[in-house]
Structure formats: C-alpha cells, structure tokens
Amino acid sequence: MQVVETVAEVRRIRRAAPGSWGLAPTMGFLHAGHVSLVERARAENDHVGVSIFVNPTQFAPTEDLAAYPRDLARDLDLLARAGVDLVWTPPVDEVYPPGYQTYVTVEEVTRMLEGAARPTHFRGVTTVVARLFNVFQPDRAYFGQKDAQQAIVIRQMVRDLNFPLELVVCPIVREADGLALSSRNVYLTPEQRAAAPVLHRSLCAARDAWQAGEHDGERLRGIMAAVLATEPLAHPDYVSAADPNTLVELGDASLGVLLSMAVRVGKARLIDNMLLGRVVD
Ligand code: PAF
What we know:
- It contains 10 helices and 9 strands.
- By secondary structure, it is an alpha/beta fold.
- The protein folds into 2 domains: 2-170, HUPs (Rossmann fold), CATH 3.40.50.620; 183-275, Pantoate-beta-alanine ligase, C-terminal domain (Pantoate--beta-alanine Ligase, Chain: A,domain 2), CATH 3.30.1300.
- Strand 2, helix 2 and strand 3 (47-52) form a beta-alpha-beta unit.
- The structure holds pantoate.
- The site of pantoate has 10 residues, from strand 2 and helix 6.
- Residues 25-27, 55, 58, 125, 128-129, 147, 150 line the site of pantoate (PAF).
C-alpha cells in the first residue's frame, strides 16, 4: 500500500497502474462502515484508492473541525489489511493552496435537512469531492447510505458536471443494537451511547407502519417523533419523510420514501435514515 501526500504522486501512481480504480473518500477515524466501502471497491475494481482528509470547508466555524477524531496510524493499518493500494493523506494546503478560490455548489437538494441545519456544509463537500474525483479519476466512487443527503447531492453533481464515473452507495453498517456506525459516536458518554439506538427504533417504527399501509408522510413523521420523545437524552433537529430523489417532504409516501433524522445526544449530532419502496434514480 502506498501512502502519499501530493496530487502529483497520486496522479503518477494512478497513471502507472492500468485497469479500473475505485475510490472511497473518507475523513479518517475509520470504522467497519468505511471498511465495507473498501471491500466493495476491492471486489469491483482492479485498484482501490482511499483519501483521508478532514475537509475544513465542510465545517462551519461553530462546528467540531479541531476536535474531529483522528488516528492516522490506526487508519493506515486497517486500510493495509483491507487490501487498499493507494492512500492520499494531503495536508490542507495541498487541497486548498494559497489563493484557492473555486467552489462547487449544488442548488436545490442542498437546501433542506442537513443543508438547512448546516448551510455551508454541502458546498464544502461537493468542492472537495470534485477535487478528489479530478485527482484520482476513479472509475467508481463509494459512499455510505448513512449520509443519505450527501449521496443525493453528489449524485446530482456527478450528473450535472458529467464526471465519467459510477457512483456506488453502500448500505448503512450498524451496531448490534441498531446504532449506525459513525466516527462521531466516539463523543457519546456510556449513558448517551445507551440512549442513541432510539434513532434506529424510531425509523423501524415508521418502517413497520409504512409496510402495514401507513403512507401519510405527516403521520410517518409523527411516529418517528413520538418514539424519539420517549428518550429524554434525544433532542431532534428534524425528522423527515421525503421524496428519495428531491428530498421534498411528502404528503403521500405510497411510492417510496426516505425516512431520515438528525438528533442531538449530548455533544454528538447523530443522523440516520431508511429508504423504503422506490429505488433512487
Ligand atoms: O462522508 C465523508 O466522510 C465526507 O463528507 C467526504 C465525502 C469524505 C468529503 O469530505
């Protein structure tokens, strides 16, 4: 496994290794969810690249950039064992050199949910992901369904800017009690950790209702909110039952629905989701 810092080195290695490349972009502090992206990339490509970069432009000044968990030695060990060929760990000024001034903005699907709560977040994500795509030039790029809106936003960018790659969205990986894996789970105290599976329970309650024929969006949101309200440590930012492509809140969810939520538990802001029915186009 080669570990490099510069754009020039990534390009040199990429050019010297013919065959297909899969890329899994990450911000490090890797867990089994990231490993599942790498394994899928390994299965579908001749070579696998991973980027580890805590991207400052997707954090607001009030957010946890400085405190974001990091453990590069552990990450590299995990990636070597997962059979990764190339890891890019750029310093900030390799991605954003002095004088940098180009940003990528996706409009409509960034306005709601995470975009409403974190107005500058997706501009940072799409900018850095566009950079990663240009540097690695992957044939396939792997993202987690855990960040459902991020996957929708990147799909829109790939389509709008004609990036010549296939976007692969991999299923959420969960702990045994249903908590979705996230680097931010490390912020939870034992008491908060015990409370956190309430997100998954509330999604399951709405899923069960939907499968039993409850297709009214407002009532599905109500079911999720009611389960969250049973946990005093859970403070919801939003619950959503939205169109899986446009993210517009649904009245009639009979064709399919993306159930999602952001919930503050202590210092952590946890997100989770479930996709029901119609497959995203
Ligand atoms: O999902 C993430 O970890 C980040 O948003 C990404 C896609 C690596 C961009 O910084």
